[in-house]
Amino acid sequence: MTGESAAPADRAGRLTSRIPRGLLPLALWALLFWLIAWPLLLVAAESIRGPAGLTFGYFERLFLEPREWQALWASLWTSVASVVLAAVLGIPLAFLFERTEFPGRRIIGALVALPAVLPPLVGVIAFLFLYGETGFVARLVQAVLGLENPPWRLEGAYAILLVHAYSMYVYFYLLTRAGLATLDHAAIEAAQSLGAGRWRTLTRVTLPLLAPSLRGAALLTFMTALASFSAPYLFGGGFRVMTTQIVFTRLNGDYGLAMAQTVMLSLLALTGLALAREGVQTVARAGGKGIAPAPSLIASPGWRLAATAGGWALGLLLLLPHLTLLLLSFVPVGTWTIETIPPAYTWRNYLTLFAEPERLRPLVNSLWMAALATVAAVGVSLLAGQMVIQRARGSASIEGLLALPWLVPGTVFAVALATAFNVHAPWAGRIVLVGTLWILPLAYLIRNLPIASRAILAGFRGLDPALAEASAGLGSGPWRTFRRVTLPLLRPALAAGATLAFVTALGDFVTSIILYTYDTRPLSLEILSSLRQGDIGVAAAYGVLLMLLSGLVFALGSEKKVVTR
Amino acid sequence: MPYLELHDLTRRFGARAGLFELSLSLERGQILALLGPSGSGKTTTLRLLGGFEQPDSGQVVVDGEDVTRLRPEQRRFGMVFQHYALFPHLDVGANVAFGLESRGVARGEVARRVADSLALVDLTGFERRPVGGLSGGQQQRVALARALAPEPRVLLLDEPLSNLDPSLRERTRRELRALIRRIGITTVMVTHEQDDAFDLGDVVAVLKDGHLEQAGTPEALYRAPATAFVAGFIGRGSWLDGRVSGADAGITQVRIERAEWSFRASPASRLGEAVRVLVRPEGLVFGPEGTAGLAGTVTDRRFAGATAHFRVTTTQGNVIEVSAPAEAAVVGAAVTLVPQDSPADAQQLAHCFRAGPE
């Protein structure tokens, strides 16, 4: 119909509205603006507010003091380098697991994607135990070469890059595999029949076709690296990037400067995003209609053996840190001193966690705070989904607000919340939440919103609007339609959104370190303090627990089968 | 008194698109087919009837009750959606039961009526099947059973046959007609296929750009199209340009190429006025050589049993379709075309319209 462009807006809008139209969207918009945009705006305002009115002094310092611009530069170049390294590791890995068949391909291929769903902090401490100066590898080298001191210190820019490459290859790995799986194989066969050799086919056909996936992966890696906090915090040493610099500046009480740094980091993130925007948009549409070929069995037995060995070795290498963590969680405190391999093993570390109330507390904290934040995020996403699907006025800006916490590094949000909610000024939308029970669940909620809403909005978009109409036509009011048709059909999307959100909140470190109180300290901070106190076994046990919980939640979340078709 | 009435229904989308002042009425148990190209407003009409869309002005009246402002769930209309919109998370039985449960029918009663409805569409025993495993035709029947189960006042069908294979289409159309007749439910269907509209519709309403062109029985539309659009949209035919060359005693002479045809019904009567003539393939015959007619050459011939479809290109370049006995001519032959009868529209196989913008 010619009226198609104008029709659906009204069509859907007219269906549900006994409540004055536009009131609910407005309320939702106001809530999101207050929680998400307002704190950021306050930070921006603070960054140019000096003791005597408007000042650009903090920004001046940002560019003039070597410490400051070096941190800015460090954030930028480590992020770019992380993208390159992750690509170098992730892309070949994707080809190996998607295009060749060898024993164990499926299981290792799935395990290799694991770091994507594990809390970054767990990865980082696992890394510490494996490659740190007192880690397995260092001890091994020390023993083999008979050195007196550990052969290296895992510190500085290269340590950070190593961790980034090791954990962020997953984005390239997953997106490249997805791209390969939906690639129209006929294009490749066409190239071959036109006389293109392997290399030419790869560079002229396959990789260009994968470009949208690769751009998406690059953007994801860049944003994650820029926002990365755990690795620079634990391995940075004197090497500062923006995220860590902000935290230290705040610790020094230099709040104005911290605000300017926060603004700068957000700008950096938003610039990166703007540059890659095109890439993201195409990613959404990436994927042809072609049928991917089955992974080919390599004919030559020698190569086949090599692929098998390579696949297993790489898989093992990538999973080694987490295996280390598992092993160390069984090592009694103080027994592993100079030996290459821990001499004794025990369940004690785990028992300690559950036996001592103060040890159990962080676990309980993390669980209830993550659960609360997840339930709230799902609720908000459901409301937003209804608005978006009805194309209610302002739904586009609601969507924008929901995405914002993903675009801006977690450190920025933590600082923004700490700024907005530490004074009592209700007329300015500011109340005191910092130092209370509620600030962390709120922070988790805000960080969860993009994750939950993305999955849930996608679910809403996938719904055939005719289904709700069919239900109405059969005599069901809006509420019954929502309960009996919309909600059941959204179940897979809800499960996916809730699962991701919960696991993210459970392992959160970035925002927690800025906002936690002793009473609400979460798992991640307890891991850190155990580590500082030398309770390596306990820290490892917490880490394993976090991994297990995350895994369990994922298993539960994905068990609910998609009922459609 | 008509059972279903549409009074001046108007629904605007932007400046040009929409539906404008549509008025139609339908007796109880009749089938109305809304026919038109895409963008004609037929789907909008159906959605206005279902309550999925609100008119800017006008009324929908059922059995004397104004239902215009009723929400879809209050209307008791049954709708079969184009892509069926079966609930994928419910099985066949639960889909059919949905409307009954919405209306608070008692549980035992629900089961019985679900079974009845499924029997009606020949799907007895399909209650526990998942809807995903059904064929296209079966899905359509489930959608029909679901719409009919709550015993709606009016049945709405959105392109009911468009998703079916050609082989299935014909049969489904017959079954659908038989079913609707058996139940005696007042039905409104949307289609862009003339065959569907003619086969199912007691009344066919032709829409174009949101305006009703003509409503009537299929015969009336074919035999006496009110507008050039209806004439061209319904059935086959060839358009020819002509000019009024004389008018006398209710007979209008029209000059077409070198021939002169006479028409009884012609809106144009001014001498020299431009007209357009639509002539059906069976409205022309091959005249004996030398007769006054349209001279041309047979450029194509498709054999179709007793008759053949000829394509004749006239000396002035018009291309005309003619159905004639299979042996009437061969490709390449020079022929002369004359109307079956005189006046040319005596058998209602040719129609004359005023030329110019429609």
Structure description:
The complex is a heterodimer of chains A (about 575) and B (about 350). Chain A has about 575 residues and is mostly helical. Chain A is built from 24 helices and 4 strands. Chain A has helices spanning about 5-15, 25-45, 55-65, 65-100, 105-110, 120-130, 135-145, 155-180, 185-195, 200-225, 230-235, 240-250, 255-285, 300-330, 350-355, 355-390, 395-405, 410-420, 440-460, 465-475, 480-505, 510-515, 525-530, 535-560, and strands at about 50, 55, 100, 295. In chain A, the strands form 2 sheets. Chain A has a two-stranded antiparallel ribbon. A two-stranded parallel ribbon of chain A has the order 3-4. In chain A, a hairpin with a 2-residue loop joins strand 1 (about 50) and strand 2 (about 55). Chain B has about 350 residues and is an alpha+beta fold. Chain B folds into 2 domains: about 5-230, P-loop containing nucleotide triphosphate hydrolases (Rossmann fold, 3-Layer(aba) Sandwich); about 235-355, OB fold (Dihydrolipoamide Acetyltransferase, E2P). In chain B, helix 3 crosses helix 4 (about 105-120) and helix 4 (about 105-120) packs across helix 5 (about 135-150). At the A-B interface, helix 1, helix 20 and helix 21 of A face helix 1, helix 2, strand 6 and helix 3 of B.
Sequence of strands across the biggest β-sheet of chain A: 1-2
- Largest interface, per-chain counts? A-B, 31 and 42 residues
- The CATH level-2 architecture of the largest domain in chain B is identified as 3-Layer(aba) Sandwich
Helix count of chain B? Answer: 9
CATH T-level topology of the largest domain in chain B: Rossmann fold
What order do the helices and strands of chain B follow?
EEEHEEHEHHHEHEHEEHHEEEEEEEEEE
Q: Please, how many domains of chain B?
A: 2
Overall pLDDT confidence of chain B: 90
Number of helices of chain A: 24
Distance between the termini of chain A: 29 Å
Helicity of chain A, in percent?
over 70%
Strand content of chain A: under 5%
- What's the CATH C level of the largest domain in chain B? Alpha Beta
Oligomer: heterodimer
Biggest sheet details of chain B: 6 strands, mixed
Mean pLDDT of chain A: 83
